[in-house]
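Input structure tokens:
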């Protein structure tokens, strides 16, 4: 962007001329050209006031034109020197010439819009980029995932990282981060309260089901990468079966969240002959209150089954088997806590736009975050390092529990500071508005 800005100022620099008064230019000409023929002729004709006045005006006009030409030549010389310096620094190659032409073809508004899009993109993905930097740094520093073990490492880090960020999302929902789109276990605000774009955002359960569906349909073809070209083992078939379960379960979850599908299913009673003479104001035909809250059991059911499978998943060593059992049990805990949340929402549906904050969601987020971290640590190289240094599975479990609690406390404090800052900003704007008016 610096290169584009430096080349883009060429036209503005050439068009910029410093305004100088007529008197100053005449005085400058008298100082620099007292011995010139023009100066002598002007003072030889001072005896005639009219001719002297006319000659002085014409001389002044000539001074203006002469000085403007000098200034233009001086600016052109400066631009040529700057251009030579840029070419000597950047090189006169094709890439430099292309960069020099881009700002000339794009308007300032287009450039500002493009820079804003890039800034927003970095702003929205900076947490993911930081997580990617930390995980790759751990891999490089530890010297793990070499050779064909890279597939096992990628599988555990990517899948465990997904559950880790799923836990962060769940914790954010409990704190009310997504209340404007109805994800904070609250009544979803309509288009009149929030923008139409936010009002069209699907439910959180639909997004969860879509992620599960996407994971299943992609991993069906990736579970045999570690032994590509070799024979399929029973463990490979187990992994493919889990992917198919995610494929079908995520698809079912998305169908359950479809409002159009619900309306089609309701046509069974709405189009019956007994419904033709119905009274629309009758209590029997009023939409149930729990229709306003999404209570989709498929995401929790899929993760519950995954936890049960991983708890009894056979591994090459006892340490690896115990580590897999730990994060499998934590996923079972997530599913049970989410079931408690749905029971509370069914018994008392939310009736406010404010976050309801069911207490069971704290346990849900804790199980997801800690389970995702242990999932990442259950790869072959990390387990081999634990066995080499004589560490048992309980070491990884206790360290992860302590780190998860500290991490959740840090997130809650950071979001509380954000709320305090937003409230302070609003108060400042309200106090500054009357004074400015």
């Amino acid at each position: 962007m610096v290169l584009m800005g430096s080349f883009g100022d060429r036209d503005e620099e050439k068009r910029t001329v410093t305004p100088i008064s007529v008197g100053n230019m005449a005085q400058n000409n008298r100082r620099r050209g007292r011995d010139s023929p023009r100066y002598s002729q002007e003072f030889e004709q001072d005896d005639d006031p009219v001719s002297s006045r006319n000659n002085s005006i014409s001389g002044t006009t000539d001074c203006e034109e002469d000085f403007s030409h000098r200034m233009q030549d001086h600016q052109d010389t400066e631009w040529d020197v700057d251009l030579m310096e840029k070419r000597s620094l950047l090189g006169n190659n094709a890439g430099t010439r292309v960069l020099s032409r881009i700002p000339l073809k794009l308007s300032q508004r287009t450039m500002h819009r493009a820079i804003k899009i890039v800034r927003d993109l970095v702003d929205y993905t900076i947490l993911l980029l930081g997580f990617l930097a930390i995980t790759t740094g751990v891999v490089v520093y530890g010297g793990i995932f070499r050779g064909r073990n890279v597939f096992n490492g990628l599988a555990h880090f990517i899948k465990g990282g997904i559950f880790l960020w799923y836990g962060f999302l769940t914790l954010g929902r409990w704190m009310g981060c997504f209340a404007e789109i109805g994800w904070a276990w609250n009544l979803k605000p309509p288009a009149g309260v929030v923008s139409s774009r936010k009002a069209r955002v699907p439910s959180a359960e639909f997004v969860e089901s879509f992620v599960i569906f996407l994971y299943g349909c992609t991993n069906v073809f990736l579970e045999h990468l570690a032994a590509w070209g070799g024979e399929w083992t029973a463990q490979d078939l187990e992994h493919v079966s889990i992917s198919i379960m995610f494929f079908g379960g995520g698809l079912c979850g998305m169908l359950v969240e479809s409002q159009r599908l619900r309306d089609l299913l309701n046509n069974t009673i709405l189009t019956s002959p007994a419904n033709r003479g119905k009274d629309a104001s009758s209590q029997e035909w009023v939409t149930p209150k729990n229709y306003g809250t999404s209570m989709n059991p498929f995401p929790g059911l899929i993760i519950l089954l995954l936890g049960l499978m991983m708890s009894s998943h056979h591994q090459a060593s006892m340490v690896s088997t115990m580590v897999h059992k730990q994060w499998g049990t934590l996923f079972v805990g997530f599913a049970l806590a989410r079931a408690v949340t749905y029971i509370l929402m069914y018994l008392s549906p939310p009736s406010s736009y404010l976050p309801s904050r069911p207490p069971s969601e704290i346990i849900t987020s804790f199980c997801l975050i800690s389970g995702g971290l242990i999932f990442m640590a259950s790869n072959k190289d990390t387990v081999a390092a634990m066995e080499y240094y004589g560490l048992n599975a309980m070491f990884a479990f206790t360290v992860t529990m302590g780190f998860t609690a500290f991490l959740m406390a840090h997130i809650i404090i950071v979001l509380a500071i954000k709320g305090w800052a937003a409230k302070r900003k609003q108060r400042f704007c309200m106090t500054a508005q009357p004074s400015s008016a």
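The first helix runs from residue 2 to 8. Residues 2-99 form one domain.
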